[in-house]
Amino acid sequence: PGHPSGEHGAMERRLRVGILGAARNVPFSVLEPIRNNADLAGKIDVMGIASLEQKDAETAAKGWGIAKAYKNFEELLQDPSIDGVYNVLPREVRASWTVRALMAGKHVLSETPLGVNAAEALLAQRAAEDAGRVLVEGTHPKCHPVTKRVREMIMQGKVGCLEHIDLNLPVGHGLDGKMICSRAGAMMSLGCHGVAIVRALAGEEPRVISATAQPSKENPEVDITMSCNLRMPGGAAAHIGCSVALDSKESPSVFTITGAGGCIRVKEWFTGKGRSSNEIALEQFDESGERFIERIDNPQVRDTFYFMLMTFITEIRDQERRQEVGMPWSYGQTKGPADAVLNMATIDAVYKAAGMKPRSSSTPLPEPYNRIGHSKL
């Protein structure tokens, strides 16, 4: 089945996607946005799912209404009817299977983060360039129109010269569930989104000034909370606080942008699961001291994952039309995997500033992407 592309009136077939991993977030991050939005359903088909164990894939396919359960990951990647994959596998093996999917000729939408460190993200970027395939990290909050509108307001000078961004993410923001988040740690579960949001809003690459972590009693290498302070080249500062402590589960996700002439406050705009606040509060510090409430015109069913999937599909189709797929200069809807590399480099720096070791790779990537400097490119 096809649908009008809108630009030339031609018919584009749906993007045929397979899911790597039977993660708990698949229904609300992929399936529900498609079922709830006819425009998205006209652009994508979920063809099948693969898991580490075939029985898990069969259970997920039956329970979630997915047409096919593959025997293993390799069978899915070798299926010529699959155009791309959504990789929701655990962080430790995620980059390895992203690279394998790219080498099999598939476009990849990867769960966040792309890998466990900047080196893995860089190698995945090289694999995408070599394969000529689109690789997008699913930092879904950046795709939401509220994030884009706040960045626009900053650029328009609504708060004057940008001075500070403050962002707090509680455990309820995590997709993986409270138990998995507590094992992965605050920075890897939540902070990866926090860093991406701050970088998107500031439009600059931050330097880590300081960071403080509360380690887990069960595993001192896991951060239960992380608080970090960043500085932008233009002088603005930022603070990111994230926690996987269970007592934070009822706390809202909040960010505040302060400038010389005002401040912007946004709360719970990307919780997903069909929920979205879409409200931006602006207070200007001029003589009138006016306060404004701006609401983004966005239907309730268009949550943050709807925009993530639309961004992935549009990126692929735009690059295909230009006949330059997967190159660093080809990305327009996103900044491509290079953005994920910079995000992970900042996360690595946060760990170091907090006196913790950055996460080390435990699963080798396939050759020639198992070492820096030996890719085909």
Tell me what the structure shows.
The chain has 377 residues and is an alpha/beta fold. It is 35% helix and 23% strand. It contains twelve helices and 16 strands. The protein has helices at residues 26-36, 38-41, 54-64, 73-77, 91-103, 118-131, 140-143, 145-155, 178-184, 186-202, 304-322, 337-353; strands spanning 2-4, 11-13, 15-20, 44-50, 68-69, 84-87, 107-110, 135-137, 162-169, 207-215, 223-231, 237-243, 254-259, 262-267, 279-284, 291-295. The strands form three sheets. An eight-stranded mixed sheet has the order 10-11-12-9-13-14-15-16. Strands 5-4-3-6-7-8 form a six-stranded parallel sheet, with helices on both faces. Strand 13 and strand 14 form a beta hairpin. The longest helix has 19 residues, at 304-322.
Query: What would the average pLDDT be, to the nearest integer?
Result: 88
- The backbone outline, from C-alpha atoms, is globular
Strand and helix order: EEEHHEHEHEHEHEHHEHHEEEEEEEHH
Q: Largest beta sheet: what is the strand line-up?
A: 10-11-12-9-13-14-15-16
Q: How far is the N terminus from the C terminus?
A: 36 Å
Gyration radius (Cα, Å) is: 20 Å
Give the proportion of residues in helices: 25-40%
- DSSP strand (E) fraction? 15-25%
